[in-house]
Design goal:
About 40% of the residues lie in helices and about 20% in strands. By secondary structure, it is an alpha+beta fold. The longest helix has 23 residues, at about 35-55. A two-stranded antiparallel sheet has the order 1-2. A two-stranded antiparallel sheet has the order 3-4.
Length: about 55
């Protein structure tokens, strides 16, 4: 599944300065934004289970 966003193309080959569909999606430091969200949600779930186990 490709994530498509509207943004300014940063490729040197791109000559259209208008915002248009971006095939790479939103990325931070080269990592897709959805991956950051997924890892955060999974990490919070594991932390909650760990806390629950530790307090019993």
């Amino acid at each position: 599944m490709k994530i498509r966003t509207e943004g300014v193309c940063t490729d040197p080959e791109c000559h259209n300065p208008e915002p248009h569909a971006d095939d790479q999606g939103t990325r931070f430091f080269g990592v897709p934004a959805w991956l950051y969200c997924f890892v955060t949600v999974m990490g919070l779930g594991v932390a909650l289970l760990g806390y629950t186990f530790a307090t019993r």
